[in-house]
Amino acid sequence: MRALLVMLIATSVIPAVSAQTGTMWLDRPMTPWTATTMPTAEAGSEAQGVLERRCGSSSLSTSSNAEALRKSGWVPFLHFDRAIVRDEVEVIGGMTGASPGCEPTTFNLFVFAGGQFAGTLSPTVMTQGRDGVAGTVRLTAPDAMTAEFARYTGKDTECCPSSRVRVTYRIERSGSQLSLAPTEMRTLR
User: Fold this and answer.
1) Is the confidence at residue 122, as pLDDT, over 80?
2) % the chain with pLDDT above 70
3) Which end of the chain is more exposed for a tag (fewer CB within 10 A), N or C?
4) How many Cβ atoms are within 10 Å of 183's Cβ, its own excluded?
């Protein structure tokens, strides 16, 4: 009886899983999730060095922000093959897996301000073609940005999500500490 009661309590507080991968953070009120330290990458299907040689971005080879990603096990890349930089803010992708054509398949997007890690755009690692994967990222002000995320249902194909949402972020500064905080989410379609 006690085990049944624990199970009923547990299932009543765990939200339903979304259609594809359970990226429920987009279904909840926006709350900060960023730690003050760079998250360590979980091992991908290829060793970090092999993936870096095959798919790494040569334009990021000398970047100190990219080096911070490497030290945490990520392979740095340019999201949609372009630098996302404004003033002292830079957004760099970090992947642990890539397709044969070097399209990141498991990744996150990391925000740096003044060479210091501020946070990630998603609280979870993203998978290409799945619910919650990041699309367009825009730096809208010196301490603000937006990112669009695909929303898939069980009926959608990998090419065509049913919906997109835009999340707005603010870089918050408290002394020498930075954090990236989501401030608004809006459904675009």
Assistant:
1) yes
2) 86
3) N
4) 13
In whole angstroms, how far apart are CA 45 and each of 48, 50, 98, 121, 164? 9, 10, 9, 23, 29
> Which residues contact residue 186 at a Cβ distance below 8 angstroms, ignoring those fewer than 6 apart?
165, 166, 168
pLDDT tens by residue, 42-74: 988 899 999 999 998 888 888 899 999 999 999
> pTM here?
0.84
Domain ranges, ordered by start, for the chain: 32-187
Dihedral, 20, 23, 24, 30 alpha carbons, nearest 10: -150
Across the beta sheet with 144-151, the strand order is: 134-141, 144-151, 163-174, 177-187
